[in-house]
Design a protein that fits this description.
By secondary structure, this protein is α/β, with parallel strands linked by helices. Helix content is about 30%, strand content about 25%. Strand 3, helix 4 and strand 4 form a beta-alpha-beta unit. The protein starts with 7 loop residues before the first strand and ends with a strand.
């Protein structure tokens, strides 16, 4: 039996993934590359991507957003430090400590809880400090809040190992605000160090900052999107997109101008022509907004326009394009014949900054094949 029973498949080029990582490492000139594998590695498959990156000796720390993601990496055999970037629900602190995850301290009162879990489990708890600099999600503000953290740390230090401190930029398009955030971060780190806390790794940059603001590189750079695709509007060309999402035509039929498409009859065939149905829809992660703007797909090396989308099926205008049942349709990436529809290009059509938002929404109904 064919083991791939999915209506559509995301093909991931693992060789290109490694080439991207190596290119970024060379560019960082000694700073740590911290792969960010949240959101199922931006939809590409967390365990597989994590295991591949773990084989690169220079990678010593990875980052996730949730405890369950850290657990998945541990199941995949990842032994590197795994930093949980955000806040963790209290009920998940004990399993996080048991998994040996590095937890982010971004609120008062967390350190005593972690120290007690470390004492109970008989292990040091690794943490990093999140310095609040202006994004206002999760972090401790320089001044009284960091003073409070230092007091907690002095009391509970026997069970705590601090491995770093970081922050996150809110708007790289605003260089003045970015520099203000950076200076606030430096003040916070200096405050911690004056209080006796060693900060082995300082990191503030993510993918976009690594591309166009190297002055913020410091000891490490958190790289998510850039492992999988280049910059959406100003690509450097040092990395290439690693994945392609493909489906297959299940029906081709002629339609007349004005024929209704999909539920409610709100969408109409714009002209006499041919329509193809593919068996994927928003339940697979196809963004309905992309259909609303008539986004492109590749069929037979040509661009066809999306017309209507349901949960499981989508109609494409193939007028003037040779098309038959079982023809391959490329929704993102390359079609294997030299034609390309980058996720970055597609994301800009619906007002998103980066194509990783599209791949992150691909559901479990989309098969993953690693090449």
């Amino acid at each position: 039996m064919n083991k791939n029973l999915h209506n559509s498949v995301l093909y991931i080029d693992m060789c290109q993934l490694r080439r991207n990582a190596e290119a970024i490492l060379q560019e960082l000139d000694g700073a740590q590359l911290i792969p960010v594998l949240k959101g199922n590695a931006y939809g590409l498959g967390q365990e597989e991507v994590g295991a591949a990156l773990a084989a690169i000796p220079e990678i010593r720390t990875m980052a996730v957003a949730q405890v369950s993601e850290g657990a998945a990496l541990r199941r995949a055999g990842v032994t590197q430090d795994i930093l949980v970037l955000g806040g963790v629900p209290v009920r998940l602190l004990a399993p996080a400590v048991e998994l040996g995850l590095t937890l982010t301290v971004g609120r008062p009162g967390l350190l005593p809880l972690l120290a007690e879990l470390g004492r109970t489990q008989g292990r040091l708890v690794q943490v990093q400090v999140k310095v609040e600099t202006g994004l206002h999600r999760y972090g401790l503000t320089p001044g009284a809040e960091l003073d409070g953290l230092l007091e907690e740390w002095r009391e509970y230090a026997p069970w705590i190992r601090v491995t770093g401190a970081f922050t996150h930029f809110a708007d790289l398009g605003d260089p003045v605000r970015t520099e203000e955030q950076f200076q606030t971060y430096l003040r916070g780190v200096a405050q911690l160090e004056r209080g006796g806390m060693e900060i082995p790794m300082r990191h503030v940059s993510a993918s976009a900052a690594s591309e166009y603001a190297p002055q913020y590189r410091l000891d490490g750079v958190r790289i998510g999107r850039r492992l999988y695709m280049d910059h959406p509007t100003a690509p450097l060309g040092t990395v290439r997109e690693v994945c392609s999402w493909r489906a297959w035509v299940t029906r081709v039929r002629p339609l007349r101008a004005g024929d209704a498409l999909g539920y409610g009859g709100h969408i109409r065939m714009p002209r006499d022509g041919m329509a193809a149905t593919i068996s994927v829809g928003y339940g697979d992660g196809l963004d309905p907004e992309l259909v609303r703007v008539g986004g492109p797909v590749l069929i037979g090396g040509q661009r066809a326009r999306l017309l209507a989308c349901c949960m499981d099926q989508t109609v494409v205008d193939v007028t003037g394009i040779p098309c038959a049942v079982d023809d391959e349709v490329t929704l993102l990436g390359g079609d294997g014949h030299g034609n390309w529809l980058s996720s970055q290009e597609v994301s800009l059509l619906i007002g998103e900054d980066e194509g990783c938002g599209l791949t992150s929404r691909l559901s479990g109904r989309v098969g993953r094949v690693y090449l």
